[in-house]
Structure prediction request, 655 residues.
Amino acid sequence: MRGWRGLAGALLGVVCLLGLSALLIWLGGFSVGHALVALWGGSFGSWYALTSSTLVRAVPLMLSGCAVAIAFRAGVFNIGAEGQLLLGATFATGVGLIAPRGGPIAIFMALIAGACGGALWAGIAAVLRRRFGVLEVISTIMLNFIALNLVAYLVRGPFQEPTHAYPQSSPLPDTLHLPRIPGMGRLHVGILVAVAVLIGAGWLLRYSAAGFRIIAVGENASAARSAGLIDVERVTSRVFVASGAIAGLAGALQVLGVTFALYEDLSPGYGYTAIAVALLAGLDAWMVIPSAVLFAALESGGSAMQRDANVPSTLVAIVEAVLILTALWLQRDGRWARARALRRVVSPRAES
Amino acid sequence: MTTGDLATFLSAGVRTATPLALAALGELLVERSGLINIGLEGAILAGAFGALLGASAGGLALGYLAAMGAGVVMALIFAFFVLRVRADQIITGTALTLLSVGATGTMYRALYGSGGAALRVPTSGSIPFPVLSRIPVIGPAFFDQPLVTYIAYGLACALSWWLYRTHAGLALRAVGEEPEAAAAAGIRVVRVRASAILAGGVLAGLSGAALVLAHAGTFAEGMSAGRGFVAIAIVILGRWTPAGVALAALLFGAASALQFAFQAMGWQVPYQLFLAIPYALTLAGLAGGVGRSRGPAALNRAL
Prediction:
């Protein structure tokens, strides 16, 4: 049911997106046909664009989208995927710099370290929430900026490349690069990791007792606490940390598969786009896969549009924002509203 | 550090703090009504772009007006989705920031080209206070600033009075603490919240105008550069009080002014760590390090 709504939302999104893009391009006085051809050509239009651009961008969006989706499902408003991703990238780079000989074991360790970095960063917010009742919305924003400044410091300080000319870490040796998938351009095996994580997370949420607890807590924490013998604090803390680990893994894969070095602009806001990705997927882990591909296609098509048709690539951000607002509009009688209606029946309150 | 360096540093701190303080005072009103507007970042950016359009079309005054207008447009969208559609505040705010980044970037490139020939718009010069500006060191820093800085000072004082000494201020605080009780007492909760959001929009727009018309004299894509999120941190660090917000804004302003001071003195200090300090302080404050640092009880509760 949720999945179908996500799919319907995604399909509606595609239609909405094409119409809206065309309208905006027309309003801006550009050639609509030319621009849409470029948008298509840069996203799905060729094997090269699909594999080397769209799917490469989809990897971090899938994982950070998954991180956001599972957290939101448990009622944890983790908007710190960006910071957790950066910490993951930092930890993975750290392992890479310690183990310059590389090899499969070093790559594996770097990925684990990345997940730990993300988990650590989310863990701070989880402890603040559990022990001190700090709203995670606020703490994760603060942690995002602390992470950004931390990376900015590291790439000019301890991690800086030996010539000290650029604000970035030394490039990782070839032996630490994730292998590419043969015949698929620049696409690295990270996409398999991402898809596996998403399938696993979706399966867990649907069919396992742990998933049931997560959803119960997210739907109605007090009911879960009183009727279901669920330790709500423990569930939310664990989901928070797991969510951070997944976002951290996204950062690690980005360093080992795409950028091969740590620098400040490593993520063009993947952790924020992830919120849109998760929302469009109806917070369903499986639906995050097509949703992430759609957003990745939009962004890589947008760059092509700027390059070939001189249409501002920022137009894509408008389309994304309208997609989110449309999803909010469509979900106005959805889950959150239903939970509110329930509460109102239980405790009638004056018109507010 | 000579007194000249110190004066320059303080002056830069106050200058940097001005847009932060304006936006944070607006967010303070919104949060006191029990809402969080994460779209503040987008509203500041929209204000900055409005200031550019207004000022290049009809001078400074039109620039300030257009900036506030742009802030109000963003606020209206936020109010519609949060109060009418009853959408989630955080997601709405995120979408609004994205919308603003996209819309200002697209319009800027469509109007002025992506090459970005440095546009110049008129800036409002600083107005020295007659006597106060001649106090050594702190005089030039605090009393030789553009008009918007004085507006920020005045606003912090006025809000301190308004919030605690008027019926309207009481109504706002009541809505943020106990919306049900406030409604039972005859306060129109939605109307109070809508007004707070609109006021927040005006101030966010003014904050964007301060960036363009009082400091940079030009517009750049994404020039709000995270200030909206800094402002949210400032509200927390200032413990949801106008005076606290003003001081916290100065602290954040000083932290980012340090980098210029270090550069001026030729120190190779990792200033990024200094930039992170205020955020860490905000977290520590939230964790209840010292005294009361509790937000409005209804903050971010589903409507």
